[in-house]
């Protein structure tokens, strides 16, 4: 309970005005949230230890294992990924996302608008819109 009170006090004292620190904080929170499962349950730690060394570096699949059509789905994702990259470059004018301050409402609104425009561009290129 004391830890939660300390955490609430620290968050309320932070003013979120430093964009560089906000990016660092966001990266740390993302890293923490992606690693929560590995240290939160003893069974998951045992399972990780039981995995072969060559299997430890595998990337977690977003949709899990498919029972069939893995290659077809991968090709479809690759085509869509290329479309998204092309549209992103058209809309934003850059090849990749840059680091941004996730605690700044103006940059978040701008980013949301860009994402909506990118998705609309993909839909138009696929003749869905």
Strand portion, in percent?
A: under 5%
Percent helix:
55-70%
Q: Could you give a short account of the major beta sheet?
A: none
Number of H/I helices: 5
Characterize the quaternary organization of these chains.
Answer: single chain
The low-confidence parts are none
Q: What would you report as the Rg, rounded to the nearest angstrom?
A: 20 Å
Described by the principal axes of the CA atoms, the overall outline is flat
**Helix and strand pattern:** HHHHH
Structural class: mainly alpha
Distance between the termini: 52 Å
Give the rounded overall mean pLDDT: 76
What would a concise description of this structure say?
With 129 residues, the protein is mainly alpha-helical. The chain contains 5 helices and no strands. The chain is flat, with a radius of gyration of 20 Å.
Topology:
Elements: H1 2-13, H2 19-40, H3 42-50, H4 70-92, H5 105-125
Helix pairs in contact: 2-3, 4-5
Question: Would you mind describing this structure in some detail?
Answer:
With 129 residues, the protein is mostly helical. The protein has helices spanning 2-13, 19-40, 42-50, 70-92, 105-125. It is built from five helices and no strands. The protein is flat, with a radius of gyration of 20 Å.
